[in-house]
Write the structure tokens for this entry.
Amino acid sequence: MKIAISGKGGVGKTTLAALLAQVYADAGRDVLAVDADPSPCLAGALGFPDPLREQLHPISEMDALIEERTGAKPGASGGFFTLNPRVDDIPDRFSVSHRGVRLLEMGSVDFGGSGCICPESAMLKTLFTHLMFRKDDVLILDMYAGVEHLGRATVDFVDAMLVVVEPTRRSLGTAAQIKSLANDIGLERLWLVGNKVRDEQEAEFLRSATPDLPMLGYLPADLAVQEADRLGEAVYDYVPAMKEAAGQIGQKLMANINETDDLKIESGV
């Protein structure tokens, strides 16, 4: 399974990514979690201890590695460099494992414009494509709002994109934009996950105002999530209600993916 998680900033993408990663790891699956957010914080949500966090470094900030693989210094523009550098060793070499979850931090590139090409972007784009072709049992991508990491060359390898939403119209507006962008590149396997849902009234609001996307499940509003972050504890362990809800979402997601695959087989796709 290859699962991309997106949504408006602050809705809880990283919380969901951490919960699902641990759900599948505890079920005996081989999990690679990739933090593709510009401000990586998935290690904290997973409860990685400080010594392991110190071993994590965003790939986009590894200047020596980028220069070695692309033939140009990071930040360089206008010169020649390799657009398809070697990246096959990076996931295993630079990921860190804890409780059955391997974590890799991608980092971000500050683009000067939509047409900007630089060694850092070439490195990350090639790495992202490589991740799509790997044989990991479960790949979870914690992305920022949008589908910038995805492209037509890799979209067929994404089994699901989960769009995290709060019970607010602005959050649902962002979900509609993400859906439009995803459909533009051919990705149609999208589901909503409601977060910070306090009661049935808010759950009903999400169901009724959805941008024509199926609702996969809900994570409850719980102040203990912030407390877990302050204490450096994994949400999965610290907030039982979140763990239970994530388990249900994880099971439903697998069922939906399997059903989609069966329909593809029946239709000869």
About this structure: Confidence is low (pLDDT under 50) at residues 111-115. The radius of gyration is 18 Å.
